[in-house]
């Protein structure tokens, strides 16, 4: 059965692609009617674009694939708590459900918004799905960077 864990594992696959490309390992998938309609992973370094976050890549692919600018029936799965920029995109896209894995104390939306809701008023939020696996990938990535003299 396709559930939150299944789809978060798909987002983790995307995060691994980012890791392998020496990008911060964040992955995302957009799901509509229990089907993955788009995928994305961080491509900030590859595209030399600070807005090329996994969520933004996945959302743009979903818009293009469906021919729409709104995704009220969609669920976005992302391995890391969205940043404020990505929350803005999720808000304007009217994404109906957001599911994330690991929290991001340094750059996640809660750092800026505190208790204020940054998503569309009708959106549902679920967090902590495969949080340990999502966090471990991030820790491994940055441990490798520190070991390489970053």
Short précis:
The protein is built from six helices and five strands. It has helices at about 5-20, 45, 55-65, 85-95, 110-115, 130-145; strands spanning about 25-30, 35-40, 75-80, 95-100, 125.
Low-confidence stretches: none
Q: State the separation between the terminal residues, measured CA to CA.
A: 42 Å
Largest sheet: 5 strands, mixed
The overall strand count is 5
User: Order of helices and strands, N to C?
Assistant: HEEHHEHEHEH
Mean pLDDT: 95
Report strand %.
15-25%
Shape: globular
Structural class: alpha/beta
Task: Specify the number of helices.
Answer: 6
Q: What does this protein structure show overall?
A:
- The chain is α/β, with parallel strands linked by helices.
- 44% of the residues lie in helices and 20% in strands.
- The chain is built from six helices and five strands, in the order αββααβαβαβα.
- The chain has a five-stranded mixed β-sheet.
- Helix 1 packs parallel to helix 6.
């Amino acid at each position: 059965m396709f559930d939150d864990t299944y789809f978060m594992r798909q987002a983790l696959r995307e995060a691994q692609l980012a890791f392998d490309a020496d990008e911060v390992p964040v992955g995302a998938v957009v799901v509509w009617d229990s089907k993955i309609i788009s995928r994305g992973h961080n491509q900030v370094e590859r595209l030399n674009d600070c807005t090329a976050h996994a969520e933004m890549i996945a959302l743009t692919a979903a818009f293009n694939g469906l021919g729409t600018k709104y995704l009220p029936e969609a669920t976005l799965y992302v391995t890391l708590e969205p940043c404020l920029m990505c929350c803005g995109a999720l808000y304007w896209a009217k994404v109906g459900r957001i599911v994330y894995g690991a929290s991001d104390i340094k750059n996640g939306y809660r750092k800026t918004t505190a208790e204020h809701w940054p998503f569309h008023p009708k959106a549902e939020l679920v967090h902590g799905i495969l949080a340990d696996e999502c966090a471990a990938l991030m820790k491994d990535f940055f441990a490798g960077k520190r070991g390489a003299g970053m």
